[in-house]
# Entry
Amino acid sequence: MPYTLVSAATLGFDLVRLPGGRAAADVLLTGLAAGPAELTALAAGARSRDADRDQRAVLAVRSRRARELAATVPQLRSVTPSAGDRAAVLVTQLERGTIGTVAAVERVLREDVLGPEHRAYAEADPEVRERAAEVLADAVVGEWAAGVLPPLVRRELVTPFATAVPDAAVRGAGADLGPATPELSSLLATFSSLDARGRDRWRAAVDDGRPEQRPWATAMHEASWAAHVSGRTRALATAQLLAVRAFAAGGLDARDGASGSWNALAGVVQGVAMGDLLDSSALGVLLAPWHRVTGR
# Structure
C-alpha cells in the first residue's frame, strides 16, 4: 500500500510500530520544514558529493543492496497467523507487520514531502535538490528499516543526515499547523509527558471507544478530504508526524500502536486540526477518546 501525506495517519500507524519509526518521522519532519539553508546543508553531506564516476557506481550498488535488505521488513500480508484468541492474534500480527513498504516510504519522501508544494525545494539548484533528496531518502530508509538492517548498513545510510541535522529530534516543533496550532501544540505536549497513570487512562479510553470503529474511519476520511480541499494537507501531515514523536515520548509502544492507541490519537489530531471544517458528528467521533480522558 502506498503512503501519502493525505493519509499521514496510516504512515504514522506503521511508524509507531517500527523500532526506528520515531527517527523516520524526524527525517520526514526535517524534509517538510527544510528551507534553503537546510537543503544546502543536507546536500553538502551527500555521499555522492565529490565522488568520481567509479565511486558513484559503487555507491549505487551499495544503495540498491541496502534497499533490498530494507525490503525484508515484514508486511501484514506476509505475517504468518498463529493460533489463539482472534483479537490477540490480530494485535500480534499488527505488531509484526507494516501496511506500507520501504519503497513506499521513500516515494512519499521524494514525491510528496519534497513535492511541488515544497517551495524551497522547488526553487533550489537542481544539484542541491538531488543531493538533499539523496540524504533524506537514505536516512528515512535506514530508520524505517532499522529493525532488519545490519548496523553497518544502517549507519552508512543515516550518518550523512545525522551529521547535517544534529537536532533532527526537534525539527518541526514550531511548525504552523493551521488555525488550531495552539491547541495541537498543547495536546501533543500533554501526550508527550504521559506517566503510567496517564497511559492507563488513555488505553481505557481507547477500549471504551471500540464500538465506534466504523464511524471513526469515515470521520478520518472526511478530515483528510477537508485538509486536501483547503490546502492544509502538509500542515495536517506535519501534525500527525509530530504525534508519532509524542506517542513515543509518552511511553507508548508497538503493542499500544497495534491495539488502537495510535488510531485514537491520530483521530484526535485530525479532529483538532480540522475542527473548523468538520460537522459536529465527525468531530464528536474523532475527539471522543480525548473527551473520555479529560471529562470535557
Observations:
- Residues 181-294 form one domain.
- The CA atoms of residues 172 and 269 lie 16 Å apart.
